[in-house]
Amino acid sequence: MDTFPEQALIENYLDALWMEKGLSANSLASYRRDLVAFARWLVAQGSDLLTADEVLLQNYLADCARRKISSRSISRALSCLRGFYKQGLRHKRINRDPTALVQNPRLGRPLPKTLSEGDVERLLMAPDVESVLGLRDKTMLELLYATGLRVTELVDLTLAQLNRRQGVVRVFGKGGKERLVPVGEEALAWLDRYLGGTRLELLGARESERVFLSQRGQGMTRQTFWHRIKHWAQLAHIDKPLSPHTLRHAFATHLLDHGADLRVVQLLLGHTDLSTTQIYTHVARSRMKSLHAQHHPRG
Questions:
Q1: Cβ neighbourhood burial of 261 (10 Å; 0-12, 13-18, 19+)
Q2: What is the domain-level CATH number for residue 59?
Q3: Which of 10, 73, 75 is nearest to 36 (CA)?
């Protein structure tokens, strides 16, 4: 790296940071990049790190935004500069902290990854239902998409929580909060088929209250089921990023796409705060914009 007048100042700050917080080499390199970038920008403005004021800092952040640097990266850089200037005040190198009144950019909540209805259909069709494990996995996937359960809630499900006659499942979510979730006819049909034969094969001579069992007749773990989801997604040629909550997100988004009330979706998901559920309205809106752009003659 070529030198410039304030390089020593930056390196001294990074050394102190390493001593105080024990930051990793990657974190220190990231701090260095942010400080050097601001220092070089200031040189072009006829200023430097120790004389920069709030106006210059605001102009720098605005310039970063114009250059399409993400809000997250700008926020990280501002956090780095806050630390640098706090130390400057502490050591009396500066009289005023230019970051003191500058607010972090709004990051916004990242939209949850979801699948299209076509993706879900392919995933649900992937398991070989003529095999014991394939039928078990098919039933789990159908139930997961039909109810929006968390994966942990699904693998922990017991026989006592199922009411097949009324078509509901009693779920104990986060904090032990109980909710009743309806199960659609399709998922119920697969559940009946699984419980009437496949589960008995997996159980053998053992006893278990768990609905879904491993190959050894024990309760499944969320990690095992997550590996199974990835396996079937690969066979279904779904190359989108997946997470353990992928089908839960799809459940919520597709309900809203088809006109479901937000508060109903909140109850089904077991969200205490409606604002947690509102993220799915953004997903649905994003999907609608995409469809409009793709299919509207003037999109």
A1: exposed
A2: 1.10.150.130
A3: 10
Burial class (CB in 10 A: 0-12, 13-18, 19+), 217: middle
Instruction: Considering only CA atoms, give the Rg of the chain.
Output: 27
Distance CA 136, CA 156 (A): 15
CB atoms within 10 A of CB 158: 13
Q: 61 lies in which domain range?
A: 7-90
Mean pLDDT within 157-162 = 93
pTM of structure: 0.56
Where in the sequence numbering do the catalytic residues fall?
A: 150, 174, 245, 248, 271, 280
Confidence of residue 296 (pLDDT cuts 50, 70, 90): very low
Percent of the chain with pLDDT over 70: 82
First and final C-alpha spacing in the chain: 47
Which residue, of 71, 90, 109, is where some domain finishes?
Answer: 90
Q: Read off the pLDDT of residues 197-209 as tens digits, 9 standing for 90 and up.
A: 999 999 888 889 9
Nearest to 153 by CA among 286, 23, 269, 37: 269
